[in-house]
Every structure is written in structure tokens, then in C-alpha cells.
Write a structure and sequence with these properties.
The structure is a homodimer. Chain A has 8 helices and 17 strands. By secondary structure, chain A is an alpha+beta fold. Chain A has a 9-stranded antiparallel sheet with strand order 14-4-5-12-11-13-3-2-15. A 5-stranded antiparallel sheet of chain A has the order 6-10-9-8-7, with no helix packed on it. In chain A, a hairpin with a 2-residue loop joins strand 2 (77-82) and strand 3. The termini of chain A are far apart. At the A-B interface, helix 1, helix 2 and helix 7 of A face helix 1, helix 3 and helix 8 of B.
Chain lengths: 338, 338
Amino acid sequence: MLTYLRFAQNAASRIVGICLGLTLTVCAVPLLAQTPAQPPAQTQPAAAASTSTPRSFGDIVAAAPADAWRTPDPQNVVYLDIPTGRVVIELAPNLAPEHVANIRTLIREKYFDGLAIVRSQDNYVVQWGDPVDKVPRKPIGSAKPSLAPEFERTLSAEAFKRFAFDALPDRDGYAAEVGFASGFHAGRDPKTNTVWGAHCYGVVGVGRGNESTSGNGASLYAIIGHAPRHLDRNITVVGRVLQGMPLLSILPRGTRPLGFYATPAETTPLRAVSLAADLPASERVPVEVMRTDSPSFTQAVEALRNRGAGDPNGWFKRPAGYVELCNVSIPVRLKPTK
Amino acid sequence: MLTYLRFAQNAASRIVGICLGLTLTVCAVPLLAQTPAQPPAQTQPAAAASTSTPRSFGDIVAAAPADAWRTPDPQNVVYLDIPTGRVVIELAPNLAPEHVANIRTLIREKYFDGLAIVRSQDNYVVQWGDPVDKVPRKPIGSAKPSLAPEFERTLSAEAFKRFAFDALPDRDGYAAEVGFASGFHAGRDPKTNTVWGAHCYGVVGVGRGNESTSGNGASLYAIIGHAPRHLDRNITVVGRVLQGMPLLSILPRGTRPLGFYATPAETTPLRAVSLAADLPASERVPVEVMRTDSPSFTQAVEALRNRGAGDPNGWFKRPAGYVELCNVSIPVRLKPTK
């Protein structure tokens, strides 16, 4: 008798290459996507034309040309160093320019160094930074103590048209349209020229109080469970974790309500929080992110949308014909060494 | 400056009562749902009629009458005892009668005792049981080595009408209709009289190989990340975790492809796996599950659908007006002591 376990090993062998040095988080979808891509006419004709034989998500990602990948701007890459390793976060200034600017200031003035991860709530978030219970709170230096909310961005009709957004054809219950804004999971409403970050696994946001203006970036969270999309447009999304999610997701859950740790001893110290731009190039993590406007990404998403299509001997027996926004993992890899 | 952290503590204080003795998993949604329920006319008039003032999910769950709760049949309750504690699973014989029967046989013949959790893949699954790499595999006794797939159940028109299903009005991308089948997250298609278990957080399924008939219940998995709904109708769902998810979700991720552990030392032993029915009543965990056909559940779901509605001073500023199936947590509690 074959088993799911054995299937999984076979599947893994097909794309483990792109996972080299990366966490299983960023590889999770590729590793699951071991079914062919056969784009239906109504979605990606370009992809259809370039896909002569069924290929899996992993096959497509592994074969993607160099120009399908982008190197995040070091000014937008944050390293969260904890005792178990390094979490790499990409900030999204196009979604929340003021909050991202404030977070850069906090990082450069070492605000986070010596603070800790203070919360781990199962199937929801981990949260770090602002210790809160400490009175007085750590001074935030020259960062702004309060910011106007950036829960969403409402643009002029012209700016909305220009705003980079790679839409999915798949319908969504929380947004009029979903897709990828400047490479980040997002929703948008063409009727109001509004765009916002979507709370998918690994997305990073700014903790706030009841007041919309009460967030300043000193308290940040990452989603570690099923996408709490009801948070969309209610709190400011500032980026997503590119590498190291398992370092956050396996943290013991806090025993106080909402997963806060009961004692400082239970918290995870932030040894250092830095911007890639402030480190020598030789000390930066050479991550590359697949461009969501690349044909390779379009083909890879189609492989997720119709797992098993055209592969009667594959594991998947019934292609969904649909992919939910947060089930699309934007591929991340370490820059290949020539 | 208030912080998200402080908000969270305030919110928690409102419903922590129902969480007593339960994991944050089962409390996660109540703890997050600190906004009022104001059912719109198009959904639940009954709930609307019974809701004079906005109440939060937590308020509604805490105030639910005794008849809004059910005690799972001990024949369907599995205790997975690992070194860190007990995971309580409710089996769903209405979704997969043959697989559930085989799992009961495996449990009663102590098949799982001494086996282990062999896989933890970030944002996907943990998997236990059938060791697979061991050759020969542990004999499965009088359990059936192979079963016809129960990926979905296709019923007669009459049986489909009678099949307990509490539908959500909210649209879904993976199913024609979604809701709760015999109290479990599910999808269905009235055109084909078909119903199936949906892969939400905490759902338990039967590992299989490429062959649809290759699953027998000796290898089981639980979802620990964003709902992989593309698995729906491709693999047999047999139940869900009622209590103890954090014991599974924080397990270190395996370092082999797909999260399999590289060495036996990394696995988590299953000290004992038992059916509640086989233990004295005094040794059973007195869990109760909210009935998905109760007015309280309808009202509670509406509180999740429109968090913040009617509460301008609450944390949520923009009610979603929608709730995705897997963002509905079916409340679980310990039976109140008189």
C-alpha cells in the first residue's frame, strides 16, 4: 500500500532544488503543487500558449528564467534575529509608506533591539516589539508616536490605473478583486480606486489600539494561521515574511488570554533587528522573489488552480478550478550561485 | 498610546470564561470576536429578532443556553496522548463511515500505540501513525488494508435533503455551498447531491498514496496552517481536533522534504491513542461542542461576519459583511460544573 507519506517524498524530490536554503514556508506551496498546469482559455492564454505539456508549480518555478525573479530593495528588507535564527521580512512601502518609513526609523535607532516576541496565539499571530506592560514604555526616539492609518490606499483614478496590481481571475468573498500589489497579496476596489494588503499567512502588520491612529510600528505582528481576512482594511499591513516563518510559527503559545506570555522568561528576545541596506552586501541574505507580473508566475498560479489537470496518474483526482488568494505562495529563493 | 496588545487583553476578558481549560485554538475566534452581532435582514431573521443589542461572538457563546451545546458521542471521540498532553479529536462518521469504522478498529487493536508523529510541515499538516519507512510496516490486524475512497458522499435526492447541513449564506470559491455537515466544516453541491468535509484548520484526514483506494486510516494528518481547500474531494476527511491543536501546531518542523523528520529521535511518540467510549466516564474529557443548527451559533457566526457593526467605538472599523468558512470556529467548551 502506498501512503500519503510516500507520495509526499516523491513529490518533494521534484522541486526540492528551489527550496535549498529556504524554509519550508516558502516552499510549502511548491512542494504541494506536484500537478500539471493546463491553463483554461478563460484565464491565462499567454500561459496556455507557453505550456505545451502539463507542468507542476514546482516544475514551473524551477524553470523560471532569471527575469522572472526580483531582488527586493535592501531598504525594504528587515532581518529579525532571534536565538533560533533569522527571519527575513520584506516591507511594502507602496501599501503603507508612512508606517514603513517609521519602522525604518525605529530599526535604525535600535528601538527593537533587546525587546521581545511577547505573544503567540494559536492559528492567529505572533507579536513583537512594544513591551506595553512595561511602564514607562521604551522611548521611540525620533520616530513618530502616532500615524494616520494606512489600512488601505485610496488613489486618484489615474494613480489607481498606474498602481502595480496583478489581479487573479478568482473571485473572493472579502474583496471586489484580489491579486498582488507591488508583489504583495492584496485586495482592491476599482469603484473606489482603493487597494489594501490582505492578511495571508506570513503577512506582517502594525499593532494598534482602538484608535485608528494608535499604531506607529513599534508593535508588529505576523500571521501564523488561517488568513484572518476580516482584519483587512482594519489595520495597517506593512509587508510579509520571505524566510523564517517556522521560527515564528512553532513558538510556544502564550498562556495568557490571546496568547500573551505570562512571564518575561517565556518571551523570545529580539537579539537584533536591522535593515539589509545597513549591512555590507556580503552579510545580506541573497533572497529573490518571483515577480508576480511574470509569465512564470501566471503559469505557476494556474498550476495551483488546477492541480491534477491533465495528469490522470497524479495524486490530485479533482482539480479545484479555483485558487484562493492566500493559497498562492509567491516563490522565494536564494539567488543561484553561478 | 493604546496598543493592539492592550486591546487584545480587554477583548479577552470578555469571554475568557468559555475558554477555561480549553486551548486557545478553540477559543481563538471567540477571543478575536469582540464586536457586536447585528444580523442583516437577508441572513438570519431569527437571530435578528433575538438580538436586541449588538453582542460579540464571545458574548453570544457565553450566553448560549444548554440546548445550544451537544456532547459528542464517545464512540466518535479520540484521545491522542503525546508527551506534552492530550489532543481530543471528534470523528465524523456521517462524512466517512467506512474510514471512521476502520480507524476505530485500529485504535481498539492498539495499532497507533508506540507509533509517532512523523511529519510537521509549516503552514500545512502534521501527520502520524503508519511509520512507512519501517519495513515491514506494522501489521494492521483486523482493520481493512484498503478502503473505497470517501472523498465525498453522493446521496440520493431524498438522503441529500435529510443530510444535516447548516448552510452559510456566504459564497465560496471551492464549493457551490459551504456550511456545517453534522457539525463539521463542509461543502456540498445540490446539483449532484454530494457533500464533503472541508480542509479547515484542525481538520483531520486520512493519508493516502496516488491510488484513491490506498488510504485506510493507519496514517492520519491534521491541518495546522491556512486551509488547503484544494485537498477537498481529493482525500478523505474523518473529523477535526476539538482540543489540543497547539500541542500539534508548535511541533518543530521536520527537516526532510515536506516536513518529515530526518531521524526517529525527532518524532513525537504517540503514548496512547484511545476512544473515549473505551474509558470510564470519569476519565473522559467533558467537552461540549456548539450545535451548528442552534440560534446561538447562527448569531455567533453573524457576529464574525460583521465584526464592529453597530459598535463605532469598537476595535473593528470596517465590518467585512462576509465570513469565509474556515474563519468560523465552532465553539468548544468544557461542560460547566453545576
